[in-house]
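Page 42, continued from yesterday. The earlier attempt failed because a stray header line got pasted into the input along with the sequence. Redoing it now with the clean sequence only.
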Amino acid sequence: MLKIISILFLLISTIFQTEAQSLDQYLEEATENNPGIQSSFKQYQASLERTNQVSLDNPQLNIGVFTRPMELLMGNQRAEASVMQMFPWFGMLKTQKDEATLMAEARYEEFRQQRNVLLYQVKETYFQLQQLQNTIDITASNLEILKSLEELAIIRYQGGNTSEAVSSVSAAVRRPVLSSQQSAGDDGMGMAGAVSSSSSRTSSSGASSMSSMGSGGGSGKLTDVLRLQVQIKALESDLQQMEVDKRPLMAKFNQLLGRESNELVNIEPTISTEKELGWNIAFLEEVLETNPILLMLEKEGLAFQKQGEMAKLEGKPMFGLGLNYMMFSPRPEMGVPGGMNGMDYMPAGMGNNMLMPMATMTLPIYRKKYKAMEAESKIYWEANEMQKEDLQRNLETEFESILASIQDANRKIKLLEEQIELTEQTMELSVTSYATEGSSFEEILSIQRELLEFRLNLLNTKIEREIQFAKLETLVGF
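This time it went through. Structure tokens are written below.
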């Protein structure tokens, strides 16, 4: 028994952990598993290795062996060997390393930008799934309202007591739109199946009600019932299509996370934002300080300056220090001293080996190449400065546009919440008037359509506000 309880507790804990998986956890998973981001980070790591490649040129070793000994005064030279190490002008190696480091930092900012774009895509897709799930919930809630109205229209047509039906309609209108808590990773037919069974039940109950109506003894109209049934079937079809529309979004979301396309996705039903907008000026300053593309351009500009310094240093002489080692063998005395032909006499050579220090220096007299290299780096730097200035202006413009969109969304959300509240009250009054006084049923249907439109607009506006906040976070970078 204890074992069974432990297993049940573990299963329940796992279910709650799965359902509680938040957007932040999905973002972390995308950063760790997305192949494109991993590739970009590997490129940054590869660029870091360039800093370790900055060093002196390899020394040169030359070895020469004479096929026949060279007869010299000090002996017969058999071979020689020399080694030479070249040294660049002072500061050249440090400048090269600084340039490589700056380019690596620029690649890191490029990686940050790609990561930010990925995180924005994950957020956007998540919000689209959230929007679709909430649209399903709102449509299902509206379907309940229509069914309650259908019941009221049938009772009124039959001439029965409408008080209970009026209360049912009011409850359906005032009932908060709650998520079905259905996992977005299901086969997509959960809601659709429920809708189908609901449709069949509605059809059968509607048919039995119609058969029991006869000619109708109440003051209602049969056309009211039929029109409601038409709208109910249309909404049920819409719900089925929405469930189908979830599949490509889930596949895209899993692809961004580096997962299989059919893996489970849990979407939080609540859309709530507690972000404040009093930081707009400070936030803009943060955008201009931390935006990855702006920082990448800044690092590249500094690297171009270092390239200009390198061009100047390359126009300076290079120095070389080395040693030359010559190997001799003893040579016997040749000829007779003071003979008739003194030119044939050669004294004996001792055959001592010789060591000769050497120094060399390059002469960079062809200045056109070095001037062109300096001009090239300067032009690249100027182009970089213009690009950076243009990006700053674009970021400021985009920031103001996003900020205006968020403020407009806040205004619309407040207005729509008030309109929904008033429309719900109007709906209740109209239903009561229809049940007691027989007022126009057209008015009820019109108000019901307005209520659905307001609720969907509120949902869309909240989702759009979240997407705009996600854009702001992308501008800042992480």
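Notes: Residues 1-20, 178-217 have pLDDT under 50 and may be disordered.
Reminder to self: strip header lines before submitting.
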